[in-house]
Known about the structure:
The structure is a single chain. By secondary structure, the chain is of the alpha/beta class. Helix content is 37%, strand content 19%. The protein contains twelve helices and 14 strands. Strands 3-2-1-4-5-8-12 form a seven-stranded parallel beta sheet, with helices on both faces. A three-stranded mixed beta sheet has the order 9-11-13. The termini are far apart.
Amino acid sequence: MKVIVLGGDGFCGWPTSLHLSDLGDEVIIVDNLSRRFIDIELELESLTPIAPIGTRLAAWKEVSGKTIRYVRLDLANEYDRLLALLSEERPDAIVHFAEQRSAPYSMKSPKAKRYTVGNNVSGTHNLLCALVESGVKAHLVHLGTMGVYGYGWSGSAPIPEGYLEVQVDTPDGQLKREILHPANPGSVYHMTKTLDQLMFAFYTKNDRIRVTDLHQGIVWGTQTAQTQMDVRLINRFDYDGDYGTVLNRFLVQAVLNYPLTVHGTGGQTRAFIHIRDTVRCIEIALKTPPEVGDKPKIFNQVTESYKVRDLAKLVAETTGCEVKNVPNPRLEADENDLVVENKQFLSLGLNPTTLSEGLLAEVQDIARRYSSRVDLSKIPATSAWRSGGSGA
């Protein structure tokens, strides 16, 4: 299978590219390297040292004997080049990671908000237009987010996988319909993902594009079997207040004996998945495409759910670190439940990596090894959801 991985230099895209190449797929990475430039903007680096993209690809060729091609292209601003690439390569599948992925960064400033919308929405729409114009019949697998559902408003009812059956009373009786689960984004980043959903629904209906949308939880961990093969292949590990997901931040804080910073009460429930399971889910999704004419196929790509305070307690018990509650910069409820259906991936063979199994190894293998690279000033979350102060 020929697969184009959009955003293939990033946190999820890089290990996915290696995983698919290792399986024998022909992989082409398309990336504008924007995540590397955001590091420069924020004056920070990944905890793990990231090699230049050329060095990464040469190392993969050396250790695996397989070639991954790379095209530097801006999905949101170079439509003609994108169209030419699709027309020439005619891939069997496209994996779409090429979106600004941080909710805190998307709320950092007017500039960051505008960049997130321009990059994410225009990039996705350009891709859909180019698929139609080129006539390429590739299966599009998109990495979405659980955040499209919002948090705390559905109570203890399980969040279904993408669609909700509703009944509407009419003068002629009850009308039953299946609709996209109502969106409730909590940041500009999450808002762009809800717009992605609507674009996918339209283009599958109007142009019969095949789309799988993966509503992923918070990714933790760093390494996969492929990124462990050579230090030059190592994956990103973000620990800062903008890009560091809550568990990875806790792991770094723990090895430095820096108090685990729990925002607000810590009663917010979040869904999680290890990076190893992310790449496996992409593999499964590529092998099980929807039929032409089907509505978008939606999976909830999660394996576990935890309240943030319980997660902090688990890390604290594992490492001996203390927990500290700090003001919450986000505009969100102090407490929420989150029950998520994830039967589809489990039924297709996903064997999840649990926190209890993988947590200690992650602390020892990554966070402690590279702890000398930490900039303590970057750990606090400073992007506020409302101008003029905290969202707490």
